[in-house]
């Protein structure tokens, strides 16, 4: 099962999501699961959750840190 993973403003990758978690989908990008939020249909999903078989597209957005 292939999922399109888009990192907002930085491109997208087709990822084989079979047997993987949402955090596993971040592998093609140089990001940590602690600095992004993973969205399916505009809603955040837990990174440690298995990718649902009906998911075709995942959006990843960087979290903003202030100081």
TrEMBL record:
Q: Which Pfam families does this one have?
A: SAMP2
Q: Which Gene3D superfamilies match?
A: 4.10.410.50
Q: Return the InterPro entries for the record.
A: Mopterin_synth/thiamin_S_b, SAM_domain_containing, SAMP2, SAMP2_halobacteria
Q: Which domain of life is it from?
A: Archaea
- Protein name from the UniProt record: Small archaeal modifier protein 2
Query: Per the UniProt entry, what species is this protein from, by scientific name?
Result: Halovenus carboxidivorans
């Amino acid at each position: 099962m292939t999922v399109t993973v888009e990192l907002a403003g930085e491109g997208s990758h087709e990822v084989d999501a079979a047997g993987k978690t949402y955090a596993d989908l971040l592998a093609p990008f140089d990001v940590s699961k602690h600095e992004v939020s993973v969205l399916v249909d505009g809603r955040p999903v837990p990174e440690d959750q298995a990718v649902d078989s009906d998911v075709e597209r995942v959006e990843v957005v960087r979290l903003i840190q202030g100081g």
